[in-house]
Design goal:
This protein is of the alpha/beta class. It has helices at 14-27, 29-32, 60-72, 89-99, 157-160, 170-176, 180-194, 229-239, 248-255, 295-308, 324-328, 353-357, 369-377; strands at residues 2-8, 39-44, 76-80, 107-108, 114-118, 127-131, 139-149, 153-155, 198-208, 216-226, 264-266, 311-314, 334-337, 340-343, 363-366. It has two domains: 2-273, Rossmann fold (3-Layer(aba) Sandwich), CATH 3.40.50; 309-377, 2-Layer Sandwich (Alpha-Beta Plaits). Bound molecules: iron/sulfur cluster (2 copies).
Length: 378
Amino acid sequence: MSKVDIYKCNSYEEKDVKPIIEKIVDFYDELKNIKPGTKVVIKANLVSAMSPDKGATTHPSLLKYLSAYLLEKGCSVTIGDSPGGVYTKPYLNAVYNATGMKETNAKLNDNFAIKKVTYKDAEILKTFEYTAYLDDADILINFSKLKTHGMMGMSAAVKNLFGTIPGTIKPEYHYRFPKHEDFANMLIDLNTYFKMPINIIDAIVGMEGNGPTAGKARAIGCVLTSRNPFELDYVASKIIGLQPEEVETINQSIKRKLCDIENITINDDINKYFIKDFALIKTHSLRFMSDKNGIVSKCLSTASDKIFANKPECKKKKCIGCGKCANICPMKAITMVDKKPHIDRSKCIKCYCCQEFCPVGAMQVKSSLIMKVLHRHK
Ligand code: SF4
Ligand code: SF4
């Protein structure tokens, strides 16, 4: 039986955050009884060089007070991530600056070595490369952010580990795992490989709408923690109004018996935390409209994907013609025509990298008309 703790928290001010950090420390014996000299590495969500108030990155205030506790105990603390883009010191420095990481007083990762690994027990990710600084830890902490995500529906604890893959080679992983189901299993494999013992979600302010980078900051009002990232994500998804079937990582983790939704214990009444009007990205899948066995989606199978599928679409008035979407697209499905992106739909795998990395939010997830009607009905 797994335990998920949720703590109400409405601001990033010291008076609100410090008691939350104390509760998190109390939840984990290895933090409560931590010895001087312990090396703690925190994998934050630093998706892009964005200021904390945008709601896209782990807030520096939480990291600052967690680091303060650990530093006072004589530990070393390193914060790191590898967002999309190059994995180099100048690039990460810009990200650390923008995301407020320099306020945390922790060491900010400056080891940009990459390690290759074979993972025999993986379901799908038998070999992969990851950011080697993670190896220099006695305790690893997965400190994520709760937000919408174009491809996966939601980004929280499980998705956060995609940041263990060096940014430069992330598009290769979209190319290797173009199906959403496979991509979700790849993310799950990363989680079972690293076995992060401490998983925390910053959901004080998250992101709704066109996430994970171009949505709107939205107050959610809590911090969640658990040893089990899959069950943690399940609870977080309920808070923002998602069904398990709408988040492929949750769906697959249930199938792989890593998430036992019948036996999760929560320290508080979850009903107090629900956000009824959280603006979600309507996922590509029709599964949520079907019964438990997915009869509707099975019957409609391939046809449904064509008729009901969401797709990336450029809002031309917002587009500044920078070409970042074309550069990041793992399938080379985008060509720039008259300084505007043109998408070859036959090549597109709906990974939404173009949406995630558009600097002005011009690339968006477009729902089909039928999907809009179905969601309204739901
Ligand atoms: S066009 Fe966008 S969603 Fe489609 S494959 Fe390229 S990056 Fe992914
Ligand atoms: S990344 Fe965004 S702004 Fe840049 S060309 Fe693509 S859609 Fe336009």
